């Protein structure tokens, strides 16, 4: 994706307009950098930071008199093969509202997801070319404070939150640590490429993020950390090979998703489930089996975008065995690919796979450190998405979108410095 360069369109404006635009750009960077700290305080707030940063960036573009240029850049990005595949998938999501039995639920889910996606798209086109090193250091500082806050709160039984009368359930820190997981690859890439002996602070930062994860209840974040670390190291050595392997893996996983429950039921021994009892591994397999039944009964189009929270109340639930019907009420299948199949059917699954494969092709063409960071983000996010939360939650889309923007900013810095 090409971004709007500061020097394009005849140079910057003059006088007061210049100062206003510069202030808006810095405010947009700050809003995006504050996201991890904001999530540690309010665990669903990442869409607010992403949307605010996007609005500030658009205001800066308008102050520079470059909205027409932004429009051309947006059309160009959407007309690319990756852009067209993403639009096709989103169009199918919208079309699925027509057969959703709970249209308001679907519209609400699409709105939550769409706001974060739109904000990420705007930021990806505008902010990377303007991002500064101080903005990166603000992101690092906010992430460190978020890690320390998370560790302190969880080690003290959330004493501070209790004293302030805030929500004090420990699981609310799962989303903040998953946000930190998303931001780890771009921060690591920035330190490796922008600092002398950057691997040392990068390793220290990764260790602090892992410590926050280890203190949390999010087993998915630890799994994602391991997947991201292995992918990053492998991609540093052979990015194209890793991208090719990922393409094969996504194709297999997408094809197998409707049958994942029965496969896992046969493949995972009871002893493993006992060891992973705290992470509810047995429950997840049973949930996958139940949603697999839904897919079997409506394989082509699915139940409609975002219907999973009400899947137990849909007509197809009546054709699922009674024990499986109960598990349809858990909110979502805890597997993004199964959720896509259940809500959008085979058409949605194929369109999603096409977008992922085109994304992998784009990543494989990037410079080695950028490709490694991008593949690490994709690897860690995939590991989480295969066992974790709902696919369309706005906070997750905003965190992933922010990570992509920071990676694009690192790519721009690397190209400018020739590092």
From TrEMBL:
Known PANTHER family for this protein?
LIPOPOLYSACCHARIDE BIOSYNTHESIS PROTEIN PA4999-RELATED (PTHR37422:SF13), TEICHURONIC ACID BIOSYNTHESIS PROTEIN TUAE (PTHR37422)
Residue stretches making up the O-antigen ligase-related domain? 206-352
Compartments in which it is found? Membrane
The signal peptide, as residue positions, is none
Q: Does the keyword Zinc apply?
A: no
One GO CC term, this protein: membrane
Q: What is this protein called?
A: O-antigen ligase domain-containing protein
What species is given as this protein's source? Microvirga thermotolerans
Tell me how this protein sits in the membrane: Multi-pass membrane protein
Write out the entry's keywords from A to Z: Ligase, Membrane, Transmembrane, Transmembrane helix
The record lists the lineage as: Bacteria, Pseudomonadati, Pseudomonadota, Alphaproteobacteria, Hyphomicrobiales
Report if keyword Thylakoid is assigned. Answer: no
In its UniProt record, a GO molecular function of this protein is: ligase activity
* Top-level taxon of the source organism: Bacteria
Query: What InterPro entries does this protein map onto?
Result: O-antigen_ligase-rel_domated (IPR007016), WaaL-like (IPR051533)
Please give the start and end residues of each transmembrane region.
Answer: 23-42, 48-65, 77-99, 105-127, 134-152, 172-192, 222-238, 245-264, 336-358, 370-388, 394-410
User: What Pfam families does the record tag this protein with?
Assistant: Wzy_C
């Amino acid at each position: 994706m090409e971004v709007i360069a500061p020097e394009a369109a005849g140079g910057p404006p003059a006088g007061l307009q210049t100062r206003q635009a510069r202030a808006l750009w810095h405010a947009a960077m700050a809003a995006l950098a504050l996201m991890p700290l904001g999530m540690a305080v309010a665990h669903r707030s990442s869409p607010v930071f992403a949307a605010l940063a996007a609005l500030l960036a658009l205001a800066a573009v308008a102050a520079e008199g470059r909205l027409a240029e932004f429009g051309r850049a947006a059309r160009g990005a959407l007309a690319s093969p990756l852009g067209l595949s993403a639009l096709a998938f989103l169009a199918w999501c919208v079309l699925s509202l027509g057969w959703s039995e709970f249209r308001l639920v679907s519209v609400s889910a699409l709105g939550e997801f769409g706001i974060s996606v739109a904000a990420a798209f705007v930021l990806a086109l505008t902010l990377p070319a303007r991002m500064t090193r101080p903005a990166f250091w603000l992101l690092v500082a906010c992430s460190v404070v978020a890690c320390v806050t998370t560790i302190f709160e969880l080690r003290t039984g959330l004493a501070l939150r209790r004293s302030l009368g805030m929500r004090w359930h420990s699981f609310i820190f799962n989303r903040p640590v998953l946000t930190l997981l998303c931001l780890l690859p771009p921060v690591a890439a920035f330190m490796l490429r922008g600092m002398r002996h950057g691997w040392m602070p990068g390793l220290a930062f990764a260790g602090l993020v892992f410590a926050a994860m280890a203190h949390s209840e999010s087993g998915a974040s630890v799994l994602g950390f391991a997947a991201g670390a292995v992918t990053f190291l492998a991609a540093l050595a052979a990015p194209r090979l890793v991208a090719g392997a990922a393409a094969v893996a996504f194709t297999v996983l997408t094809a197998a998703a409707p049958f994942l429950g029965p496969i896992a039921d046969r493949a995972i021994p009871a002893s493993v489930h006992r060891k992973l009892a705290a992470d509810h591994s047995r429950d997840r397999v049973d949930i996958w089996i139940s949603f697999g039944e839904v897919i079997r009964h409506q394989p082509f189009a699915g139940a409609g975008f975002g219907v999973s929270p009400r899947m137990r109340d849909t007509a197809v639930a009546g054709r699922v065995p009674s024990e499986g019907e109960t598990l349809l009420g858990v909110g979502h299948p805890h597997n993004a690919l199964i959720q896509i199949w259940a809500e959008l059917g085979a058409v949605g699954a194929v369109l999603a796979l096409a977008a992922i494969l085109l994304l992998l092709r784009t990543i494989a063409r990037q410079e080695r450190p950028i490709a490694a960071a991008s593949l690490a983000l994709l690897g860690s996010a995939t590991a989480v998405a295969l066992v974790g939360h709902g696919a369309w939650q706005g906070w997750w889309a905003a965190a992933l979108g922010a990570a992509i923007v920071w990676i694009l900013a690192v790519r721009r810095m690397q190209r400018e410095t020739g590092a």
